[in-house]
Structures are given as structure tokens and as C-alpha cells.
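**Backbone geometry record:**
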Amino acid sequence: MSAVAVTRRFSPVTLTSGVHAGRATAWVLVGLLGVLTLVALTAHLLAPDDPIQPVGGVQLPIGTPDHLLGTDSIGRDVLSRTLYGLQTSWFSALAVVAVGLVVGGAVGVTAGVAGGWVDTLLMRVTDLFLALPSTLVAIAIVAALGPGLTNTLVGISIVWWPYYARIIRSEIRAIVARPHVEAARVTGIGRGRLVFRHVLPGAVPTAIVTASLDIGNVVLLLAGLSFLGLGQPSPAPELGADTAANTQLLLTAWWVPVVPGVAVLVLSLVANHAGDGIRTLVTRR
């Protein structure tokens, strides 16, 4: 390869164009996340019918007038149930991630800043939770508390915070060792101001990226617990429960169990790719 070819291939214009293309794609992915959140927010307005009451004939196929995605085995509108189920799954996943981020972040920041025996104690407790099979523990907690959305969120949140604690603690330890933090400490600044002004802001991008990449995993776990009957009691619309309750219709009225399953797939895919987009926007300057 000639020197001219090498220069053209790795020219600043080409590299800059690649960065801009990556950021443009990232903004599109984040935009999809915003659209999904808007759909979840307005599900009660977008749903054409009551998701619980029968509103039409039994097992009407996709494309039926007034029932775009058909009806289920007792005549409930599949589109309405899917939209309400999407709303429940999406905001439940956001709630679990928020709780995990707050609890795990508090543990990670405390351990990273304090160091010494406080760091050791908090990290050993965190390691204890990480050593447990999180999904099985969540199932056991929900089974003990009883089916219900609140109990499901509690069960998942209890096992979800240690991941954030570990990641944020590592980031805080790295930030504490940086020269600007050492310089601030030498000036005699108070610990609270040191943490909130010089340490914590440096960990925020890592926390945001970690949380955004984690939403899809929580969506899948929530759908799995709902599929096992550990979500909201019937007839509440839930994506996993609707798929599980109608699997016997897979060969006769396939749209009834497949549509909520596809909704779970869309939620997970959009969340994962939007997480990648957020990581690109946060890390690339």
C-alpha cells in the first residue's frame, strides 16, 4: 500500500466522519428509547379498548376491523393488553434499575471514599449477594411474599444492587487517586464537599451507561417471572403472563401468545441498543 493510500485511508476527515456517523446512530437509538417511553406513558390513550373486559368475538385474527392485533380466547383486545403490559414492564424495569443504582451507588461511593475496614466490610457483603444465584433468589423471595407486581419488584431489587455497588466502587477508587482529588484534600476541604464536588461527578457517566445497558436484562427477568406466574394476578395485562396463559393457542390462534412475546423482544432490543447509544454519546467527545 502506497503512502498516499495510507494517508487517505486514515485521514482526519475519514476519522471525523466515522465519529459523526457513530454519534448520529447513537442519537437515533436514544430517540427510539424516547419513542418507546412515550408509548409506555400514553398506553392508556393509545389502547383502543379496556384491556381486561371482553370487547369482541373470541380469537378474532390480526387485521380484524376495530381489533388490529385480534382478540384472545375470551374476546379481549390483544393490542390493548399488549400496550398496557408494555407500560407495566417498561416502568417496572426502570424502577428496579433506579433502586439498584441508588442503593448500589450509595454502597459503592461509601466504600470507595471511606476505604479501610468500611470498604472491606461493604464489599464482603456485596460479594455475598453476588455469590448467590440472583434469579433463583428473586424467585424465592417473590414466592415467599406472594404473587404481585410490588413483590416482584422487591424481590428483583434485593438481588440487583450489588452489581452497581461493585462497578461504582471501582470507579470511585480510581477517581479518589487522581491528582485533582488529592489537591482538594490537601487544601482541607470537607469530606462532603470533596465527595459531591470532586469525586461523585466523575462516576456519573459510568453509572448512567451501566444503568442504560441493564434495562433490557431487567425487562427479560420481569417477563420471565411473569411467565412463571409470579407477576400480577390475572386478569391484569402482563406480557410474560399473557404469553404463558395462551401457549395452548400457538397452533390455532398464534397471535394471542406471540404478540406479547414480540413486545418483550422489542423492549429488550430497544433498551440494549439504546444503552449502546448512550455509551457512545457519553464516552465519545
About this structure: The chain is about 75% helix and 0% strand.
